[in-house]
Design brief:
The chain has 408 residues and is α/β, with parallel strands linked by helices. It is 33% helix and 14% strand. The strands form three sheets. Strands 1-9-8-5-4-2-3 form a seven-stranded mixed beta sheet, sandwiched between helices. Strands 10-12-14-13 form a four-stranded antiparallel beta sheet. Strands 7-6-11 form a three-stranded antiparallel beta sheet, with no helix packed on it. Strand 2, helix 4 and strand 3 form a beta-alpha-beta unit. Helix 2 packs parallel to helix 8, helix 3 packs across helix 4 and helix 9 runs parallel beside helix 12.
Amino acid sequence: MTQRRWSVPVGAASGEADLGALRGILPGPEPGLVQPTDGSRILPVSETRLDGREKEYLDECIRTNWVSSAGPFVRRFEDAFAEATGCRHGIACSSGTAALHLALAALGVGPGDEVIIPAFTMIATPNAIRYTGATPVLADAEPETWNIDPEAAAARVTSRTKGIVAVHTYGHPADADALGRIAEENGLFLLEDAAEAHGAAWKERRVGSLGEAAAFSFYGNKIVTTGEGGMVTTNDEAIARTARRLRDHAFSPDRHFWHTFVGFNYRMTNLQAAVGLAQTERMESLVEARRRVAVWYRERLVEVPGVSVPPERPGVKSVFWMFGILVDGRFGISRDALRARLAAAGIETRSFFVPIHLQPVYRDRHLAERYPVAEDLCARGLYLPTSPWLTESDVDRVAQAIRTARAS
């Protein structure tokens, strides 16, 4: 018998050979951070804030010996986070990607189905769809909001379409009204990828409660973190029940080690949930810290020629998971050159997402497709340090470094 092995491509086989055709769109290599000579600290793009009851709750886990997924903090975290999103149910799991996969599986997505997603998103979104055997179908972004364009999404609906994933990019809520209408008119589900949008709201409706279900991430750089972890939120009892069972190997409620369908091992530990509960208890203050940082950045950068700052729609609460900017020709140097100069000043940045149709792992599926807005965002976008620990003087330092880079 021949054993099948996973092969991990390297070098040219991983997509490096055709990068030449994409020069000008893809970001360059990551610039190396330099420790400032004046004694200033390096400013990372994100810093975790663990100054609530995290240690107290972790001590309780250790004292009571409840460290696995059976501990009481899991349900306490689920209930608290569901309430914070305006939902009846929260299903904690091992990662944001696991949350997406659980939600899609609970919604009945499978082989032969299509799910519409933005071309401008992180790789986890299409990957989770592929885990179900379904096909991700791409739609371009809106240039103003960086979120999926509802008109472009509507144009991608076919007889095989099962649903739409609304990604709330960098903490800016997608147009839930327009996307909800498209879903309702075509008998589709609306699933939120809310990985970056804890605490955001669309016209008084909290993100996480805008569709049939939502998926959140609690990775270390997220507004609410458990180190690693995720959550499905929903108001639908059937979706919640299915997601809970799928999360835990699909154990039968009637007898142990009895399985009538294939499940996953996507459980969250009591230790992680203890941290998540402490974070959720002060989620509003963590959100407001990032919104305050965004105000400072906007005040200092809005009039810098060649720099565009993200808008906030009237009546919509963006949470600015990361404060992104776009750099155009008026700035005088490229986005990558700006990143290099900021890194030389001890300021870490990240380039924007590389669109899905340009990813080596997906490119052969989308060779004839172009998404000009997504490509433009990829070519010109970067995000700045956006930490709840940042002070106004830290933001002054970043803004001054940007102005200095332009002047030079």
